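tl;dr need the bound structure. longer version: we got a ligand (adenosine-5'-diphosphate) that a collaborator sent over and nobodys looked at where it sits. i said id run it. heres the input, straight from their email, havent touched it
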Amino acid sequence: MIQTITIIGGHSRSGQPEPVEHIEMKMGDVVSIVGPTGSGKTTLINDLELFADANTQTGRRMLVNGQRPPLEYRDNPAMNPIALITQHTTFLSDLPVLEFLTAHAGIRAVEKSQMDEMIQKTLAFANQLTGEPIVLSSRMTELSGGQTRALLIADAAIICNTPIVLLDEVENAGINRTLAVELLREYRKIFIFVTHDPRIVLLSDYRIVMQGGSIQKVLYTNEEERTFSRKVSKLDDLLSVMRDKIRSGERLTTHELEGLA
Ligand SMILES: Nc1ncnc2c1ncn2[C@@H]1O[C@H](COP(=O)(O)OP(=O)(O)O)[C@@H](O)[C@H]1O
Ligand SMILES: [Mg+2]
């Protein structure tokens, strides 16, 4: 059983030692990785996915329960404890959703007797996250960006059931992010989001701040940030209503901002 993942710092792009030498992530943690473009966010995610052992460009090492991880994590797809969801996740096949999930469950060695239930659960979870319901007979390639993201998140949480889920830049994907974080929290995994979405960041336990290819600091979400996180969600909802109205050619009025107080 995985209890903790430890990041042991390496060096920045210019070869300086990383300011943060040690981060221990525990099961149940929701973590955001933040920093400007080019600061090394994706690279850190890749180090995690590869279980870097001083063998990548950053020199970082990852420990599982305080020890070097077993090789089978990398070598056996059914044993890999990490699911990675990126903006560029595409599907080589044009399978219907049902067959995609069945094939995936097969790779993850889900028992036959549990298959139907798992697939239904995954679909129900995905459909809570997206406004446009997915049906099992749709083809993977026909799904919208939001539907695809929702399905992959549900697949990672339920079918893959991996203890660690990495999500690289999932914002603007047309999914209910507050609900996503709240539901994912119940699964007691380590969720790591690369994001600047205030909604997700404020619901995270802490954020890892990247700069120049290195981990600059770790900021725990404080009391003040926690208390206004609801207001931020409301603001975000209002903005998306306005966006929809603009898109459909309507006028905006001051009414739009009511409820913000
Ligand atoms: N610690 C590091 N040492 C060397 N090169 C790095 C390091 N961190 C990032 N890089 C390189 O810097 C570039 C930008 O990093 P990337 O992770 O893509 O940034 P971001 O995802 O924040 O935009 C990439 O080419 C990456 O290989
Ligand atoms: Mg990136």
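gonna send this back to them w/ a short note. Residues 11-13, 35, 37-43, 57-58, 210, 213-214 surround adenosine-5'-diphosphate (ligand 1) (CB under 6 Å).
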